Amino acid sequence: MGRRPLVAANWKLNGSIGLCKQYAEKLSNAPQIDCWVFPSAVHVSTLAKMFKESAANVRVGVQNIYTEPTGAFTGENSAELARDVGATTAIVGHSERRIHFMESSQGVAHKTAQALDAELTPIICVGEQLDDRDEGQAEEVVEEQLEAVNSHCSTAVWQHVTVAYEPVWAIGSGIAATPEQAQEMHNRIRVMIKNWNEPASKAIRLLYGGSVNSRNAGELISQPDIDGFLVGGASLDIDSFGDIVEQARIGDAL
Ligand code: 13P
């Protein structure tokens, strides 16, 4: 289908200048797939400078942006400010933001629009909680999250974004979705997007996130609708992250 794999590292509230240096070294030989790195906002500028000489397929992004571009919002960071210090991508709607910071799907839709206005490529995170899955509501939850973006931003939005399916129960638990579970939801997501924008549904990259490691990455990436990963814990170890990138590269070459 010709979708280039993308492996993204979400450091969450972790990282250091030392980890920035390790990434800069590891990714200096252009990996044959796309690698986007999301350090804490305070490290974005440092990492972006280190990546300056890197190939265009290596990008730095922010883990969150505010719903407004500028103004009296002490402590917030906007898409415009992120762009100003070298970010070219932004995560929006991570479940940790939705759960701990009460972000609504409407708020996530506004952030998606903000990111696109500032020419940052958004990775829109979606995913159900364990109760939703147990109650057979997983698809409905994910559809509501995507529908909010679709109605706020228009159907053209799907040409310009990446979606990460991260089931909340798989994040940081050590229990990844099975390849079958992940493929099933990725396929559902692609079909949802197809109903809004058919050409975009073929090109859009759908990432899986939730306890990805070098042992499960190979089988996950071999699924037809899984185009890469959003990696949390394993991205804090440069060798583990490198192994996952390698699995995605091999999977693409098969
Ligand atoms: P883990 O890889 O630690 O499960 O985290 C996944 C995640 O939340 C990435 O955004």
Question: Which descriptors apply to this entry?
Answer:
binds 1,3-dihydroxyacetonephosphate; 8-stranded parallel β-barrel; 254 residues; globular; 11 helices; alpha/beta; 44% helix
Protein described:
Helix content is 44%, strand content 15%. The longest helix has 18 residues, at 179-196. The chain is of the alpha/beta class and 254 residues long. The chain has helices spanning 17-26, 41-50, 79-84, 95-100, 105-117, 130-134, 138-153, 179-196, 198-203, 217-221, 238-253, and strands at 6-10, 34-38, 58-62, 89-92, 121-126, 162-165, 206-209, 228-231. It has an 8-stranded parallel β-barrel with strand order 1-2-3-4-5-6-7-8, surrounded by 5 helices. α1 (17-26) packs parallel to α2, α5 crosses α7 and α7 runs parallel beside α8. The protein is globular and about 45 Å long. Bound molecules: 1,3-dihydroxyacetonephosphate.
